[in-house]
Structure formats: C-alpha cells, structure tokens
Amino acid sequence: MKKYDYLIVGAGLYGAVMAYELGKKGKKCLVIDRRDHIAGNIYCEEIEGIHVHKYGAHIFHTSDKKIWEYMNQFTEFNNYINSPVAVYKDELYNLPFNMNTFSKMWGIRTPGEAKAIIEKQRKETGITEPKNLEEQALFLGGRDIYEKLIKGYTEKQWGRKCTELPAFIIRRLPFRFIYDNNYFNDRYQGIPIGGYTAIVEKMLEGAEVRTGVDFFEFRKENPDIAEKIIFTGMIDEYFGYRLGALEYRSVRFETEVLDCENYQGNAVVNYTEREVPYTRIIEHKHFEFGRQEKTVISREYSSEWSVGMEPYYPVNDEKNTALYQAYRELAEKEENVIFGGRLGDYKYYDMDKVVAAALERLEEL
Ligand code: UDP
Prior knowledge:
With about 375 residues, the protein is an alpha/beta fold. Among the domains are: about 5-75 and about 190-245 and about 315-365, Rossmann fold; about 100-170, no CATH class. The protein has twelve helices and 16 strands. The chain has a seven-stranded mixed beta sheet. It is globular. The structure holds uridine-5'-diphosphate.
C-alpha cells in the first residue's frame, strides 16, 4: 500500500480539478507545486485591495453550460465583458474586429461598406486558402486590419513571423459585422467574485498540498509515495528533454502601483505596433469594477522561453507539434503517469478547456 492514491504535480486549474474530483471519490491525493503558492497561472495577488493577475490576465469564458455550472459550484462570476482596445501609433481601435473597428479604420458606417472594403483588399492578396497566420488574417480582414492591428502585435507576442505561425491562433478572435466589442463569442463570461485563487483553494480543500516542492527532487526521495502520478508540468522536462526541447513563449510583467484612480479606462489595452516593446497594459481593477484610490497596471513583455523562466504559451507550429507527438508516444508508455494541462498536453488551452480536459480524463480513470 502506498501512502497516497495520487501524487498531483502542479496546483493549477487542471491539478485542482483532478484533486477535487478524486477526493470526492475517496482517493487520497498529495498535490505539490514548485512555486510557493497554489493556483498556477490563475493565481492573483492582492495589492492595494486589487486582485492582480500575477501571471497574466485571465477572463473566464465558455459556451459549455456544463463547464459553466461546474465552475459556479466554487464561485459566483461578475458581469465583466472583455472589450479590449488597441492602440496603433496615435490611433485607437475597438477589439475584436467589428463594426466599431471598421468604422474607425475607414470612416464608414454600414456592414455592406465594411465587407466591400475587406473583399477588395482580400482580392488584391489573391489568397483563397489561407495556410498560415498572415494569410488567414489577410483573408479575414484585408491588409489595413492586418498591418495595423495584427502583424506587429502577433510578431511581438510570438517572436516569429506571421507567415511561420499557425492560422488557428488568429481564428481565436471574432470578426463580426455588428457593433459589438465583446472579445469572446461565448455564451458565459465573467471574473470570479473573490478571485481565482479562492476557487483553487476550495478545489484543493480535501487534498494535502505542499508548495515550494520540486517534483524531480521530491521523486528521488519519495519514489513510491503514490499509486499514480498526474503531471501537469512541461512534458519535455518530465522526460529530461531527451528528444530535444519544445519551444514556449514566456511573458515578463512590469507591475506598477500608480497613485491615480483610473489610468487607462479599460482593463486591457493592446499596443499593436512593433516599435512599442510591450504587447499590452493590463489595469487590473477594471476586471472587477474597482473603486480603489490607487490603481495597479502591468506591462507585458513577451520573450522566448529558456530554462529558469516561466513557460506560458506552447508554440503549436509544425516543428513543435511533431516533437510533441514524439513525447506523447513516450508518455503513453509511461506507466501510472497521466499528463495534462497546458504544459502537460502542450496545448494553447483556455481555462474552460482545461477544466473540460480534466473532467474527460477523470471519466477515463
Ligand atoms: N491578436 C492580434 N492583435 C491584437 C490581439 C490579438 O493580432 O490586438 C492576435 C495575436 O496573434 C494573438 C492572437 O490574436 O496571438 C490571440 O490573442 P488572445 O487575446 O486570444 O491571446 P491571449 O489572451 O491568450 O494571450
């Protein structure tokens, strides 16, 4: 008999859902995390009474009623609707790409006018079947939108040319011909009242949790502690990078407390030109309609990941997808170890997809 049924590596959303559900089934779980806190990248730190999204802004959104109800067991959500604005040089546009954007870009008013301009620009490119992000963007929105709102931002965020990136990344964003600045198409959306960390805390209530514990060290000293391992860290690191390192993008945040009540008037402002070194500025209080006297902002700088940095985004291009497949094969042979989450599955998951993936995996177990 081993001491625990499950050793869960990573106290982020995937690990926490696993711990919660397994706990309900009477399984004994130990959750460890390398960081000195739980909640992975949805962790929030309170500064000046404001929940600061320490590892990047997170807005929960889903079209899946089951997942929405699942999350509502742990929290209530507020009615925040994400409506970022984009700054390009001295111009300001609404996102996602919608009639407000088109009207500002071309001085037009109707969907017919917008469609005609996009159609004309699309024809000029000659693209019929988009094969990469650049072609996809030109195909959807024409040259002006691409040059002003997509190219610079994307190349900053990914550190790669738009011609070398997969088209699906840009298909995450809606293109619509109505005046609607809601960034997401999903049925349900909001920020948890009380913050994200509190959700994970609730999920982990029944488990034993140890933070500041490195799995690879821990395993050396405790090789037989659990029947099964759920690993939510980087899959290539798990295998000692033996097939080569997968690529990730990292983000560095420069966070400042400002002695002003309202700095930018919106939670998310994207800087889409190449010359501005950061991709966006987040003003955290606006996610929760905060009325504090001060404000906290974070500038996001994107960079290539290297050992010692935090991995945020998998780079799901052809080369990395092939390498991931090779790791996947190793993972399948690894007895009693389950891989999951954004890093374990090497997939650009949103939070709802993480929860769905965990619940699906639990069914199989
Ligand atoms: N994007 C863009 N301009 C913007 C915002 C997003 O071109 O102002 C593109 C960019 O390629 C980015 C993708 O849309 O990688 C997805 O953006 P999203 O906001 O979904 O990224 P996340 O919030 O996950 O970082």
